[in-house]
Amino acid sequence: MSLFALIFSGAILMMPAADAAERPYDPTKISPDDPDYMRCRKIPVTGSLVKKERLCKTNAEWAEYIERSRKEADDFVGRHRTGQDCRAPGTGTC
After folding, report:
1. d(CA 38, CA 94)
2. What is the spatial distance between Cα 87 and Cα 94, in angstroms, rounded to a whole number?
3. Residue 87: helix, strand or coil by DSSP?
4. Alpha helix (H) ranges present in the chain?
5. Within a 10 A sphere around the Cβ of 38, how many other Cβ atoms?
6. What is the pLDDT of residues 26-68, one digit of tens each?
7. Domain boundaries in the chain?
8. CB within 8 A of 59, min separation 6: which ones?
9. Is the whole-model pTM more than 0.90?
10. Whole-angstrom Cα distance, residue 30 to residue 2?
11. C-beta atoms surrounding 62 within 10 Å
């Protein structure tokens, strides 16, 4: 291997380390209330007593996830409270 190839390959290996050192982002300085703060939760797996799935999202994504889940639950309860199930085949339109 020539001296030039050795120096060039060493420079390439050092580039990602230099790039990582120059990044201004520091996750330890983000407030836990910040919408971009990443949170991980362990969600129980259906059919298992002990297995959990790790789900990581930002605070903004968790808020959207929770809002969507609430809306779907309200729709489900509302449809079944009135006896309507618009998704059932052969029921016609709501």
Report:
1. 40
2. 9
3. coil
4. 3-22, 59-81
5. 13
6. 666 788 889 999 999 999 999 999 999 999 999 999 999 999 9
7. 30-80
8. 33, 34, 35, 36, 37, 39
9. no
10. 47
11. 17
